[in-house]
Amino acid sequence: MSVIVENIDIFWEGVKVTLWLTAISSVIALALGTILAALRVSPVPILRGFSAFYVEIVRNTPITIVFFFSAFVLPQMGVRFSYFTFAVIALSVYYASFFCEAIRSGINSVALGQAEAARSIGFTFMKSLRLIILPQALRTVVPPLISVFIALTKNTAVAASFGVSELLAKMIYLADEESTAILWILAATAIFYLAITVPAGALASHLENRLRFAR
Amino acid sequence: MSSVLYDEMGPRGRRAVAIGSVTGSVILAGIVYVIYRQMDSRGQFNPAIWSVLQNPDLVQLLIRGLLATLKVAFVSMILSLTVGVFIAVARMSRFNSISLPTAAIIEILRGIPLLLIIFSVYLGAPALGLEVSVFWALVIGLTAYNSVIIGEILRAGINALPQGQAEAGAAIGLTSTQILTSILLPQAVSRMLPVMISQLVIVLKETSLGFIIGYTELLRNGRTAVEYLGGQYSIPIYTTIAAVYILINVTLSLIATRMERRSSHP
Questions:
Q1: Neighbour-count burial for A82-119, b at 16+ CB within 10 Å, e otherwise
Q2: What is the total count of domains within chain A?
Q3: Are A138 and A85 in contact (CB under 8 A)?
């Protein structure tokens, strides 16, 4: 137990890096995912095809390989960034496809009649999107978005083996230093992750219940 | 083509789509060209670099890695499905002394990174006096993480069944265990099969985390090859590995979609 108290600074350093990694990556991934989803539902075939191709490829690739491409292949191409930036790139590229799928399924969940009604009273494409489709799609889309966010948070741990000293990397370091207290260190690390993911999960199910009533 | 968002296009709409197609193509072609030029300037399209894939030693190394990957994936999938059933049953138990601890374990295992679970097995078991090989650390970690998810999928499947199913079972005098095993679970499994297959795709992807604890699977062998042959070969080798994963996973996903379509039109 005392090993946690003594090394709380090291844990805290790791938690901070994990939180930054999560925050920056999820903002970028959400932005990219929204663009991909917009392309995916657009009437322009080539843009739809591009988005579908991207999502299909990335979703079927292990995240470790995405990290490989960002951390080992980009430097080969002459790109010089910090390990942290490479991790942000990998996480953003990977989770953009999951955010895209969540948003797309939200848009598809809006009943066909809603859009038909909007068109029949003369709304333009943009107007029906902005006033009818998106407000309804956003409701269904929030809980799945949070699920993707939780998955992203958990997979920031993969960055540990690509040179980023986030929470899991700190745990590996401490496990080496204080090998007698390994079980305490593992438990403490788990609690730090749970402190991020459990409230997010609770928020998701709370929103899900509230939005269900609103329908 | 019409969808939620738009009807059959009129002449103006068709013109807008045509303009969008051209602009989109130009932008995409531009991006591809920039990547191409960057790669070309690094000599990445030199046939000598790609011919490394004909190196029999490399091919053998990758195939051995693929077999190791499939072995972990297969064992973990089987175990996850089995343990998943038990977790679903325990979670739905009438006894709080069983269902509440199960719910807590589910919550914990779903809330922490898979990598942490794998490390917990790998580093934690020796502290308890057990020696665990990397293979089993990976399998146990993957099973712990995925059986919980499979269990929750099954539970959702059971909950989605009409109430009458269980009631009919009770009416003809089955015990609650019999109702579960001979009425509810079989229907939940067949209903949830597509979702479970998608979860198995995820298991296959997650085996690549074995690279991190040093299990010599596909990715680890690819990395070893690049370290041995030189960084200029990283693109051909990693692209090949990615292609293998994508090929297997897309096939599995297609099977899942097929089944889904079949089960939705009985």
A1: eebbbbbbbbbbbbbbbbbbbbbebbeebeeeebeebb
A2: 1
A3: no
Tell if the CB–CB gap between A72 and B234 is shorter than 8 Å. yes
What is the interface size between A and B, counted as CB pairs within 8 Å?
159
Give me the domain span that covers residue A20.
Answer: 2-214
Option in A76, A115, A201 nearest B232 (CB)? A76
Q: Min CA distance, A189 vs chain B (Å)?
A: 8
Flag whether residue A172 sits within 8 Å of chain B, measured between CB atoms: yes
How far is it, in rounded angstroms, from Cα B252 to Cα B258? Answer: 10
Task: State chain A's maximal CA–CA distance in angstroms.
Answer: 72
Greatest distance between any 2 Cα atoms in chain B? 76
CATH number of the domain at A189, please.
Answer: 1.10.3720.10
Q: Is the dihedral of CA B30, B32, B38, B44 positive or negative?
A: negative
Give A104 to chain B, closest Cα distance, Å: 11
* Spans of all domains in chain B: 1-41, 47-264
Out of B116, B231, B235, name the one closest to residue A168 (CB).
Answer: B116
Instruction: Enter the ipTM.
Output: 0.88
Contact (CB, 8 A) for B200 and B252? yes
Of the residues B1, B2, B5, the best mutation for testing chain A's interface (the one with the most A CB atoms within 10 Å of its CB) is B5
Domain B47-264, second-level architecture: Orthogonal Bundle (1.10)
Q: Which residues of A touch B144 (CB under 8 A)?
A: none
Give the Cα-Cα-Cα angle B86, B88, B91 (nearest 5 degrees): 105
Residues 58-87 of chain A whose Cβ lies under 8 A from any Cβ of chain B: 60-65, 68-69, 72-73, 75-78
User: Measured between CB atoms, does A51 come within 8 Å of chain B?
Assistant: no
Which of B207, B101, B92, B195 is CA-nearest to residue B145? Answer: B207
Residue A127: the pLDDT is 84
Reduce the DSSP state of residue A63 to 3 states and report it. Answer: helix
- Res B3: pLDDT: 63
Q: What is the pLDDT of residue B2?
A: 46
Share of chain A above pLDDT 90, in %: 50
